[in-house]
Amino acid sequence: MSSPAADVVRLLTVKGETLAVAESLTGGLVAAEITAVPGASKTFRGSVTAYATELKHQVLGVDAALLAAQGAVNPQVAAQMAAGVRMFLGTDWGLATTGVAGPEPQDGQPVGTVFVAVDGPSEPGEKGFGGGKVAALRLNGDRAEIRMESVRSVLALLLEELSGEQAGNRGAQDTEQNGGN
After folding, report:
1. In this structure, what are the phi and psi dihedrals at residue 153, rounded to the nearest 5 degrees?
2. In angstroms, rounded to a whole number, what is the distance separating the alpha carbons of residues 119 and 96?
3. Is 169 or 48 the better-scoring residue by pLDDT?
4. Domain 4-176 has what CATH class?
5. pLDDT tens for each residue of 107-126
6. 138: three-class secondary structure by DSSP
7. pLDDT tens track for 92-102
8. Cα–Cα distance between 153 and 147 in angstroms, integer?
9. DSSP H helical segments within 16-90, as ranges?
């Protein structure tokens, strides 16, 4: 049985497309999961772990006013992180994770509040920017469980987008999903 990361690498390799990741609460776990797959170098270009809020603006181009007003745990921040890493590293697809793994709340958000995002071509086969999707998660568990579920969720969101694109179904929309243990 293949893993979600292996499925991502396989699909992107077949399509000849590339991927970059912007991570906050997952601290590099998404990139580690992808690069653990043999052959990932054919599609994975790199990642940015922007743990500090100011780096989300300085490196990934997240709107400073948005960060000041809403904090880093926000669906628009996740979307802008995914688009920013995609542009910064010049890839077809960008993924992002931001949220609160605990033990304390952050930016007025409770532990387990997570936003994962994917940004890709706005139309199948198009190299332009603007095709984004964000999932809002309310996760249970300890810090490690929240972080690992965030990894699983962002990879699942990308697989959903890649599968939808193959079916000619790609559209930008927001979703909310509940997960956890």
Report:
1. -70, -40
2. 9
3. 48
4. alpha beta
5. 899 999 999 999 998 654 44
6. strand
7. 999 999 999 99
8. 10
9. 29-35, 53-58, 64-70, 75-89
Rg (CA), the chain: 15
Residue 62, SS3?
Answer: coil
Which residues are CB-contacts of 177 (< 8 A; sequence separation ≥ 6)?
135, 136, 137, 153
Q: In this model, does residue 128 exceed pLDDT 60?
A: no
Token digits of residue 150: 């965030």
* pLDDT surpasses 60 at 59: yes
Domain boundaries, the chain: 4-176
Buried b (16+ CB within 10 A) or exposed e, 128-149: eeebbbbbbbebebeeebbbbb
Is pLDDT of 104 > 80?
yes
